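Researcher: First entry.
Model:
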Amino acid sequence: MLTRSLQYTQKRLASTGTLLKTPLYEAHVKLGGKMVPYAGFEMPVLYESQSHIDSHNWVRSKAGLFDVSHMLQHNISGSDAQSFLEKVTPIDLNLIPENSSSLSVLLNQEGGVIDDCIITKHEKDKYYMVTNAGCREKDVQFLKDELKAFDDVQHNTFEGTLLAIQGPKAQELLQKFTNEDLSKIYFGQTKFIKLAPISATVHLARSGYTGEDGFELSIPSATPDEAAEALGFFNTLVNEYPDVAKPIGLAARDSLRLEAGMCLYGHELTEGITPVEASLTWLIPKTRRALTDSSFNGAAKILSQIKDKSTTHRRIGLTSKGPSPREGNKIYSEDGKTEIGYITSGSPSPTNGGNVAQAYIDKKAKIGSPVKIEIRGKLRDGVVTKLPFVPSRLYKQ
């Protein structure tokens, strides 16, 4: 069943056009990575030394290394930077301490999600943002268009090595390479650190996309020497600490985030879905929910949905046995007569067994309710389930 899941993931990740390579590409090939087109890049979906289940379970028990250098990195600064970001997202940057980050969403004028993003506040007028690889062109154009209304905002994107280290052994592993006390950096906090043997300063964020503890490292790689140092660091992790660290591909990254109840753009999030409909109302802080607040894109619709509780469907989990639900599968009431929703992502669960899926379902369907899922022309049993499927183990104060 998981072999079929991997085939499905590979098919879903396929794209066309000239493919780019990350600074770690050479290591992926030498390690036997099965390279596939993804968001314009050639990326490893799996490594020959591990199955999908092995890779997934390794992250849950040790430390997995994810090359996420295909993600787009942004620097945004200037006296209007905060106003700009609070126009295109619903975030309140006054609530974010310096050197801290938060999940947010780029919004269109109707309140739909153009992309999800992580915004880091370094100073009052200085921010760092990471957006999704598959949305690069439309994100840049969107930001460029929105910037026209602001005078003093400098925005630039840059490439580099972006490495995620995820799992319960992540801190133990990374601590070997820095004198910084990583135990004092908590989830959502960031810091510029020195990381041996890398010459440049590295941006460290305690965050990730698996539900496990971990870090994301932005390692400068603009010059051949910088890129070589980043590649050397990655190879050192793999070669010198094989009992702790292993490279992990896109297949396990997808099943890990699905178990953790995290959204994937283009599946759980689209331009036709608001944060409220996506069960992400928590992204709109109370300070921005005043009905007179129309300062962020789509505020009128989003704030109305919050006040009137007018949404009809919500993002929620499903569990099932047998064939795994897939994107687009229809969901019906227990008697199979009334269509009440659809699957956005689904996969066998290596951690829990059986299948897990995220879906948009009629709000009347309660947690624990039995439903039917149409899979391969047959109605299969499913159960509405609370997210996440696997409890998060983030390192918090």
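Researcher: Second entry.
Model:
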Amino acid sequence: MKFRSIHKFPKANIGDSVRVSLPDVDRGRADPRNIIFGVVSIEDGQYYKLGNKYGTLPQLYTRNQFDVCPVSLIPLDEVVHVVKLLREIGSQMSDGGGQGYKRCSCKRKCDTNRCKWKSSSNLCKSKCHGSMPCNNKG
């Protein structure tokens, strides 16, 4: 079993680019399914520290948790050593702002500029208030 695993997942080297899949719950519909990282260090010969220009992941990865890219895409001098979660890096890379959506949280009709959503010139959506009346709908 270990022999098969070693041949299926050969070792990665420091400086290799790897692809880590982003879980469905941590991304929006238009967000990428995978994130490219570089191998920053290897501990005990089997645990890999990964990072890219948005940050370094706090946990260590084993070889079966990522795929090695055939070409090195991320130079090690571009890797930022600020520790961030995979979810945070995924939301920074996304076009839509990550897994959630932004909405108004008012309990009234959004008449005045006290509503932060209206003061930033956004129109309320159906997900903002549900069935409550609103004067800021578009």
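Model: Note on the second entry: Strands lie at 17-21, 34-43, 47-52, 55-56, 67-68.
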